Known about the structure:
Layout: E1 4-9, H1 15-24, E2 37-39, E3 45-50, H2 55-61, E4 66-70, H3 71-77, E5 81-86, E6 92-99, E7 114-117, H4 120-130, E8 135-138, E9 154-159, H5 163-167, E10 170-179, E11 181-186, H6 191-212, E12 213-221, H7 225-231, E13 239-242, E14 248-256, H8 257-269, E15 273-279
Parallel strand pairs: 1-3, 1-4, 7-8, 7-9
Antiparallel strand pairs: 2-3, 4-11, 5-11, 6-9, 6-10, 12-14, 12-15, 13-14
The structure holds adenosine-5'-triphosphate, 1-O-pyrophosphono-5-O-phosphono-alpha-D-ribofuranose and magnesium ion (MG).
1-O-pyrophosphono-5-O-phosphono-alpha-D-ribofuranose (PRP) is lined by residues 13, 141, 144, 157-164.
Amino acid sequence: xxxxxxxxxxxxxxxxxxxRLFKECGIKFNNGAKKLKAQSSNFPIEFLFLRDDxxxxxxxxxxxxxxxVGQNVHEEYQKQIEVVKHLGFSRCRLSLAVPREEKYSxxxxxxxxxxxxxxxxxxxxxxxxxxxxxxxxxxxxxxxxAPGIGLAEGICDIVSSGxxxxxxxxKEVETVMKSEAVMVADSKLSDEKRVLLNQLIFRINxxxxxxxxxxxxxxxxxxxxxxxxxxxxGMRSPTVLPLAQEGWSSIHSVIxxxxxxxxxxxxxxxxxEGILVVPIEKMIK
Length: 285
Ligand SMILES: Nc1ncnc2c1ncn2[C@@H]1O[C@H](COP(=O)(O)OP(=O)(O)OP(=O)(O)O)[C@@H](O)[C@H]1O
Ligand SMILES: O=P(O)(O)OC[C@H]1O[C@H](OP(=O)(O)OP(=O)(O)O)[C@H](O)[C@@H]1O
Ligand SMILES: [Mg+2]
C-alpha cells in the first residue's frame, strides 16, 4: 500500500501542535532531531519536515499529498490545493500596523505609502478592495523592524498577543485576515490516498470533538432530575444512576465546554452538587 505523504513545518509556530495532533490520532512515529523524513510504524503515513512557505507548492506538485499550514500562507501562495480541515491551532491575524506616534484615522492613511510585508498578494488584494494604492515592499522576515529603519511607513504582518508590535513601537490599525492552521490536500489525490486521508480526518475529528467537549458527572436530588437533564442533554441523553443514599442520583453527560460555563450556575441552582468535569480523549458522535 502506498504512503500518504504529509508535509509539516520543520520548526516554528505550527510544528509542535501539528506533531501533537498526529500523536493524539494514535499515529506513531519517531521524529528524532534533524530528521527531515519519518515513517509511521502503525499507519501508512510518511512525514516530510519542511519550511512552511514551501508546503503549498509541494502539495500542488504532488511531492506531498497533504500538508499543514496557516491560512495566511495558503492564501498568499494561491496554489491549486484544497483546504480539507480547519485545525483550530496557531490562531493569529494578519494586520496592518504603523508607528505608535502616527495619527491614524482610517485606511486612507496608506494611500501612496510604503508598506513592508511577507504577504504581498494578500495585502494587494486587501488594498484593492479598499481602493488604496500603496507601494508594497516584500521582505521575508523581521517585518516589524521596517518602519524603524526607514524602509516603510507601515507594515502588514502576523499578530497574536501584540507584544512584538509593542516592543517595536508599532500599533495595530487594521485586521486584514484571521488565520488558523489548516490541513491542505493535493486535489488530484488517487482513490487509494483519498481513503487514507478520510481515515485520518475521521481520527482528527474525533480528537478535536473530544477537546471541545467535557464529560460531566454530578449528584442531584431526584426531584431536580428533569431540570438537570434539560441543561445536560448529552449525546443522546444523560446516564442516570441511583446513589446509595435514597432520593439522590448521579448524572453523567457530555457537554460543550462553552455551554458548561454558561450553565454551571443553573445546574447549582437546580440542586446539582459534587460536580466533576473530566477531559475526553476522543469523541465519535
Ligand atoms: N505569534 C503567533 N501566534 C500564533 N500563530 C502564529 C504566530 N506567528 C505565526 N503564526 C502562524 O504560524 C505560521 C508559522 O509561523 P512561523 O513564525 O513559525 O513561520 P516562519 O518563521 O515563516 O517559519 P518557516 O521557518 O517554516 O518558514 C504562520 O504562517 C501563522 O499562520
Ligand atoms: O503578536 P505576537 O504574539 O508578538 O506574535 C507575532 C509574532 O510572532 C511571529 O513571529 P515568531 O515569534 O514566530 O518569530 P519569527 O519572526 O522568527 O517567525 C510573527 O512573525 C510575529 O512577529
Ligand atoms: Mg515561513
